[in-house]
Structures are given as C-alpha cells and as structure tokens.
Amino acid sequence: MNPRVIALDAMGGDFAPVETIAGAIRAIQSHSNLDILLVGPPALADTPELQPWLERIQILPATDVIHMGEAPVQSVRTKPEASMVKGLRAVEQGVAHAFVTAGNSGAAVVGAALILGRFQEVSRPALAVLFPAIDRQVVLLDVGANVGAQPVHMLQFARLGEAFARVALDLPQPRVGLLNVGEESLKGGGIMQDIYQLLAAAPLNFVGNLEGWDLPRGHADVMVCDGLTGNLLLKMAEGIGELFFSALGDIPEASTLRSRFDYAEHGGSLVLGVDGTVVVTHGRAQREAIANAIGLAYQALSGELISRTRDAMLASQH
C-alpha cells in the first residue's frame, strides 16, 4: 500500500518552524505508512534534525507566509506562494492527500473552500472537533470558522455535524442540539429563535436548545453553535483543563484523564464541508499537538471520513 502523504504548513503557528518540524518527525515515527510534505522555505532541508528523515519528509518550496492577523480572503488570493496556499494546492493537484496547519484558521478555511471546493449546498464550511463528554464524544461545530453565522448557515452546520457523526461515531440517528442560553424554544432572541425553527423543521433528530453544561454531559451527539461561541467555549474548556491538571500534578490517575481532555492529545479541528481533508490546529501548538493533528488527518484519510460525510449529507436530502 502506498504511503499517505500529508502536507504540513511548516511556517504556520507561533512556534514554527522548529515545532512543526519536530511534530512532523514524531508523526512519521508513529505511522509507518505516512510521508510528510513539509511546505516552507527550501532552506528547511538543511535543518540537522531532518537529515535522517529526508526520504519520508520532503520539502515543498514556499517563499511566503500568511500571518495570523491577515485578512483571510485577501491573503489567500494575493499570496500564491504562501505555505498555506501551496499546501492546499498540493492536495488539489493530488501531490498530497491532506493538509495540516497551525496557521491562520480563517485563511485555512477560506483557502480550503476556494481551492478544494465545497460540498453541494454548503456555502460556509465549519470547523468541527470531537469534544470529550462523560461517556461519549460529541461533535461540536462551528468552533471558529464563522463568527457571524446566519440561520441558513447554522442549518448547514447541523447537517454537516449530523452526517459526520453518522460516519465517524457510527450513530444511525445522532441527536442534534442547539447551544443556547436556555432550553425553552423562545430563548436567545430573534436569530436564535429562527435557527431553532429551521432545525426543528429539518429532517434531523433535533433535541432542542441545550446549555453549556449539557455538552460535557453528552446530552447530544452533535452540538451546533456559531464560530464565536464555539471558539470561546472550546478555549475556555481547554483553559480550565490546564488549570485542573496543573493542580493535580503527577497523580497517576491524572495521566489517563489528561489523555482524554488535553487539546494537544486530540490535535485539532477538521474542516467540514470542503472536498478534501484539512486539519487546523492551535496557533500555539507545539510538537505533540502538531504530531496529533497529523495523526487526525491520517485517521480521517484512512476512514475516508470526508467523502463519507459528503455522501451521508447528500443522501439525507432524498
């Protein structure tokens, strides 16, 4: 079987390229059937740590970078030599099978949509994570791609999340909840009421409005929110987790819990709604998180999760 090739944005993130290179090395050490296409300056090939691995870690030259503060659409369109754009182009051209970045998440989502194309009837892709609940995993989306989503977009997120839960979690009828400030249908003001009505009328197993504490309790299999709310929720949970595990110290039981709740263990977010496998991880990601983001992309490829999600979503329309 030919190895999977994953393009990694060598220049994305706060600690690039040192941590992205180290993460790439960790990933290929963990996956024998994996090669990395490291997208960045040609001089990266001279990095001493890479020398033993150059048969499995190739350099795709890129002479520009999309920085964190840049406008996503403009930067993708005006920086064809940026590492992020070159990495996505590699997937489009079949040189790589997936793309991973710790860079500008908005640019990654926009670039994926523009370069790889979107699913039918998806106007805005979403970032999705598998959030650890008490006895299950919950698909949480959107966690940062769309800060001012309209009701029609939220319906698309619900359908994307529901289709993804079917294939990734093997759930025949995933329960879909809407994150809101209360359970009653009239909570949250006009736009939230409009979203509620759209989801209630859709062919979904919609369980209504749910509150923040319902997420870790696993009261839904898919939790839908806009990108601003989802990003705040996710980072708050990660921050509390760091505080909690810091307080526990080296207690043996803490390591098992940490493996379930530490963001670095889970790698990143999948871009749902585009015709390709793209994983976005934290800008502050270091080698462990980078390696696990690559691992997430590898698992998504192995399970054909993106194409199966697209097919499941299309099938649900009929």
Outline the fold blueprint.
Elements: E1 4-9, H1 18-30, E2 34-40, E3 57-61, H2 72-78, H3 83-92, E4 98-101, H4 105-116, E5 126-132, E6 137-141, H5 151-168, E7 175-179, H6 190-201, E8 205-210, H7 214-217, E9 222-224, H8 227-248, H9 252-261, H10 263-266, E10 269-272, E11 277-280, H11 287-302, H12 305-315
Parallel strand pairs: 1-2, 1-4, 2-3, 4-11, 6-9, 7-8, 7-9
Antiparallel strand pairs: 5-6, 5-10, 10-11
Detailed description of the structure:
- It contains 12 helices and 11 strands.
- The chain has about 325 residues and is α/β, with parallel strands linked by helices.
- The protein folds into 2 domains: about 1-120 and about 275-305, Isopropylmalate Dehydrogenase (3-Layer(aba) Sandwich), CATH 3.40.718; about 125-265, 3-Layer(aba) Sandwich (Isopropylmalate Dehydrogenase).
- It has an 11-stranded mixed beta sheet, sandwiched between helices.
- The longest helix is centred in the last third of the chain and has 22 residues, at about 225-250.
- It is globular, with a radius of gyration of 19 Å.
- The relative contact order is 0.17.
Write a brief structural summary.
The chain is an alpha/beta fold.
Oligomer: single chain
Low-pLDDT runs: none
Tell me the structural class. alpha/beta
Can you count the beta strands?
11
Mean pLDDT across the residues is: 92
- Beta-strand proportion: 15-25%
Q: Give me the CATH fold name of the largest domain.
A: Isopropylmalate Dehydrogenase
CATH C-level class of the largest domain is Alpha Beta
- CATH H-level superfamily title of the largest domain: Isopropylmalate Dehydrogenase
SSE order, one letter for each helix or strand: EHEEHHEHEEHEHEHEHHHEEHH
Q: Please estimate the helix content.
A: 40-55%
Whole-angstrom Rg:
19 Å
How is the biggest beta sheet arranged? 11 strands, mixed
Q: In the CATH hierarchy, what is the architecture of the largest domain at level 2?
A: 3-Layer(aba) Sandwich
Tell me the number of structural domains: 2
Order of the strands making up the biggest sheet: 3-2-1-4-11-10-5-6-9-7-8
Distance, first to last CA: 36 Å
Net shape: globular
